[in-house]
Task: structure prediction
Amino acid sequence: MNILSNVKLSSFWDTLRTSYWFVPMLMAVASAALWVVLYTLDLRLEDTTIRSLRWIYTGGPDGARDVLSAIAGSMITVTGVVFSITIVALTLASQQFGPFLLRNFMRDKGNQVVLGTFIATFLFCLLALRTVRGTGNIIFVPHLSVSAGVMLALLSLGVLIYFIHHVSAFIQASTIISVVSRDLEDAIDRLFPEQLGHGISEYAEPAAPEWEIPVRFTTESSPVAAHGYGYIKAIDTDTLLGIAGERDIVIRLMKRPGDFTGAHDVIATVWPGEAVDDDLGAAINESILLGNQRTATQDVEFVVNQIAEVAVRALSPGINDPFTAVICIDHLGQGLRRMAGRSIPSPFRYDGDGTLRVIAYPSTFADVAATAFDQIRYYGRSNVVVTRRLLETISAVAPHLRRQEDRKALLRQAEMIERGSREGIVEEEDRKEIRRIYRETLAALTY
Result:
């Protein structure tokens, strides 16, 4: 199975687990199966056996109807009211933290199980209610089913208490940022799995074999246009490598995961240009998975953007919450620490004979650092607390750096932060403090 097939399966699974119907549907099916089992036992057990069990409901058909009707009605009412109020609260919270809050809420297993419990209890009681008979000469009370319905109602009460606590904790800034921060760590571990060593060579500049690109690549290559439009979710470079090897060509990708491509935009160039035909264009397009939104499948900057968005919204005049921005900076710093110790994949891909076949530029540490700091640096340059924490975070990341270009990237960020503070911070004493921290940051980066 190729990379793109795995990505499609992963995307389908992500769609299922982030949907608000999948887990509740499974729990509803399980409740129907439970009713079938208990109803079968109710038909086979004698009344004397059932009455000997003290915890079993032993009332008549009218009482059974009342109990089941009360539970079913209360469950559907609680479900409607609770989730309506919750969605309103989440909508208001998403204005501060960003629209991804709603997506994280929907994919949270606890929330899905709560909804599933309410729906399963309602469905079970509804199915049990239709089996109660108390007219004419036919009297049948599903004692086990009624008892199970009462137990499910008690369970639903406990789940309701859990849900209120869970949502109250979920919409707190620290919890939201921690959830996205874990997604960032997972994305880094998945996309940059190789750890850097601890030898002297890790400090050397990485080789950049631009000379291996054919000299006439620019003048003799031909473009390949996109057949569709959307955000690039994933690229199957292994398939592209096979295509390039079969046709004896070099494919240079002009887009990377996370970029938006419009219809007929150039997504790749091929050398030699005369090798481009409709079949090759279709094969290259099939190796690139497009979607209507960015995902973290092969796009680590997407997750970084989510944390940065929370910080930028917190720094807006309407909210003015620099402490939430500081929390975001702390977690972004942790992500940069983790990525600083990882090996960045080479953009140059070779076949088995060592011939260059595919050029696909990945996200680098510098790209992630710019995504993490650029917007926060701009919108927080007049805030002393935010400016100070940005410089302190760079100093904290510095000891973990192993590549010279990574140091240059953070040095550039530190210079822009200090330069912006001169324009944004009014108080001279505050500017002096920022300059002092800036000098400490420079010392940490040049160590």
In short: The chain is about 65% helix and 10% strand. The longest strand covers residues 230-235.
